[in-house]
């Protein structure tokens, strides 16, 4: 792909930042025409850079994958007991998946859809989750047969429920405890 002209790059960057703000305010269903207008460009400019809503969401999430990987590594490096490690990871997981209203649903639907522009980012999340669940800190406490991808679906589902119900993040804790009890052996720390 050839580099953009300076003015085209400025427009693209402005669209991404404006979309990030609009998604935080109104969720992923925010009007694309309003985003273009707030960015000071026409709808045609928006659609030239981002042919679909998912393409724009993908661009907004560009630093998200790095944050997910860093969070997983931080949790692994802390070397805490399995329950504490997973509690911290699942809380960060929810924060990352729920970056704006509607994001959790987008992530859930893109998880198994290679045609989705955010599919690759979902795979980063899946890999980070697998690394945490299979880390030395956690592995010893995990029940036999626990599939990291299924755990990811459960925690993502909690994120969707929290988002759709308008719950505060701390209201997810009882649901996360249920997942933890299912994932960890009873004798795990």
Class based on secondary structure composition and strand pairing: mainly alpha
Number of helices: 11
Low-confidence stretches: none
- Give me the count of strands: 0
The radius of gyration computed from the alpha-carbon positions, rounded to a whole number of angstroms, is 18 Å
Q: Tell me, rounded to a whole number, the average pLDDT.
A: 91
**Oligomeric state:** single chain
| Proportion of residues in β-strands | under 5%
Q: What can be said about the biggest beta sheet?
A: none
CATH-derived topology of the largest domain: Tetracycline Repressor, domain 2
CATH architecture of the largest domain: Orthogonal Bundle
- The termini sit apart by 51 Å
Query: For the record, what is the CATH homologous superfamily label of the largest domain?
Result: Tetracycline Repressor, domain 2
CATH class of the largest domain: Mainly Alpha
Could you say how many structural domains there are in total? 2
Explain how this protein is built.
With 189 residues, the protein is mainly α. The protein folds into two domains: 6-60, Arc Repressor Mutant, subunit A (Orthogonal Bundle), CATH 1.10.10; 64-183, Tetracycline Repressor, domain 2 (Orthogonal Bundle). The chain is built from eleven helices and no strands. The protein has helices spanning 6-26, 32-39, 43-49, 53-60, 64-78, 82-97, 103-110, 119-133, 136-139, 148-165, 173-183. Helix 5 (64-78) packs antiparallel against helix 6, helix 5 runs parallel beside helix 8 (119-133) and helix 6 packs across helix 11. The longest helix is centred in the N-terminal third of the chain and has 21 residues, at 6-26. The protein is elongated, with a radius of gyration of 18 Å. The N and C termini lie far apart (51 Å).
């Amino acid at each position: 792909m050839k580099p953009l002209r300076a003015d085209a790059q400025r427009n693209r960057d402005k669209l991404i930042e404006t979309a990030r703000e609009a998604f935080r305010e109104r969720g992923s269903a925010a009007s694309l025409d309003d985003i273009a207008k707030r960015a000071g460009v026409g709808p045609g400019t928006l659609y030239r850079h981002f042919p679909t809503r998912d393409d724009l969401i993908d661009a907004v999430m560009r630093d998200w994958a790095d944050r997910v990987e860093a969070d997983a590594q931080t949790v692994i490096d802390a070397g805490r007991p399995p329950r504490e490690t997973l509690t911290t990871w699942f809380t960060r997981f929810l924060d990352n998946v729920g970056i704006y209203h509607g994001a959790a649903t987008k992530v859930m639907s893109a998880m198994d859809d290679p045609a989705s522009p955010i599919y690759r980012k979902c795979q980063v999340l899946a890999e980070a989750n697998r690394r945490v669940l299979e880390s030395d800190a956690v592995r010893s406490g995990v029940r036999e047969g626990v599939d990291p991808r299924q755990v990811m679906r459960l925690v993502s589902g909690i994120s969707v429920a929290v988002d759709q119900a308008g719950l505060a993040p701390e209201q997810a804790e009882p649901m996360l405890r249920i997942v933890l009890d299912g994932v960890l052996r009873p004798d795990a720390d």
